[in-house]
């Protein structure tokens, strides 16, 4: 599949809601009969004993697929046990990541559309020279940025957007996933970001019920980011 049918899901940091948003999009598109597929190529902090709760496990569940170790390996081939940045986690195991191999893996995948979830924030190191931003730029796909609504998110989000645009990465839009602690309503945060970042599609995801599959309760997101047209 060409990058035209791919959407890269990145974030302003780790534990920000990327997997929730990606799973919500997968669930929504699947219920509409779309042949959506999702990848989580690089993963740190992986525990095989808790694969159902892992990021690829959540994505598989949102696609209605069994969460087996084989299925996890198929969408997340670069898995590391240490909960560190990929370069550091790989080094702990005497391994390393090769950017070209990750990009080739993503390009070889089929899906209509294909969602590729990154790891951590846009500037997380993959190896000694490359970051997730390099991955996005090399893949050449539009990127959806997921941000929180915590104090400081405006600066983090604007910095992320500026870095991506500076590398020529197309920003498909922004999702503000409500943080546990928000100094103002997420809509107010969105307005502030929009004033400085320029017009871009923004969707809000409020705190969802504590549930094994909260992505089922998310409001529709696909149309906001043109996924029906991909």
Secondary structure layout:
Elements: E1 6-11, H1 18-31, E2 37-39, E3 42-43, H2 55-62, H3 69-75, E4 78-79, H4 86-92, H5 99-108, E5 114-117, H6 132-139, E6 143-147, H7 153-166, E7 171-177, H8 186-197, E8 202-205
Parallel strand pairs: 1-5, 1-6, 2-5, 3-4, 6-7, 7-8
Helix pairs in contact: 1-2, 5-6, 7-8
Characteristic key phrases:
single chain; 230 residues; alpha/beta; Rossmann fold; six-stranded parallel β-sheet; two-stranded parallel sheet; globular
Characterization of this structure:
The protein is of the alpha/beta class. It has one domain: Rossmann fold, CATH 3.40.50.300. 35% of the residues lie in helices and 14% in strands. The chain has eight helices and eight strands. It has helices at 18-31, 55-62, 69-75, 86-92, 99-108, 132-139, 153-166, 186-197, and strands spanning 6-11, 37-39, 42-43, 78-79, 114-117, 143-147, 171-177, 202-205. The strands form two sheets. Strands 2-5-1-6-7-8 form a six-stranded parallel sheet, sandwiched between helices. Helix 8 (186-197) links the parallel strand 7 (171-177) and strand 8 (202-205). The longest helix is centred in the N-terminal third of the chain and has 14 residues, at 18-31. It is globular, with a radius of gyration of 16 Å. The model has no long low-confidence stretch (mean pLDDT 94).
């Amino acid at each position: 599949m060409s990058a035209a049918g791919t959407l890269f899901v990145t974030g302003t940091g780790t534990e920000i809601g990327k997997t929730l948003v990606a799973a919500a999009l997968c669930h929504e598109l699947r219920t509409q009969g779309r042949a959506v597929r999702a990848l989580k190529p690089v993963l740190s902090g992986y525990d095989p004993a808790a694969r159902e709760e892992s990021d690829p496990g959540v994505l598989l569940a949102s696609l209605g697929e069994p969460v087996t170790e084989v299925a996890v390996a198929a969408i997340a081939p670069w898995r590391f046990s240490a909960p560190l940045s990929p370069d550091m986690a790989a080094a702990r195991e005497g391994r390393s990541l090769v950017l070209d191999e990750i990009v080739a893996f993503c390009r070889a995948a089929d899906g209509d559309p294909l969602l590729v979830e990154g790891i951590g924030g846009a500037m997380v190191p993959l190896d000694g020279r490359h970051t997730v931003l390099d991955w996005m730029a090399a893949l050449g796909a539009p990127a959806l940025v997921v941000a929180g609504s915590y104090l400081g998110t405006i600066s983090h989000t604007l910095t992320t957007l500026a870095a991506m645009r500076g590398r020529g990465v197309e920003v498909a839009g922004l999702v503000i996933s409500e943080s546990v602690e928000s100094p103002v309503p997420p809509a107010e945060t969105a307005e502030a970001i929009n004033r400085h970042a320029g017009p871009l599609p923004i969707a809000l995801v409020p705190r969802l019920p504590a549930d094994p599959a909260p992505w089922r309760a998310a409001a529709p997101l696909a149309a906001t980011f043109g996924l029906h047209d991909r």
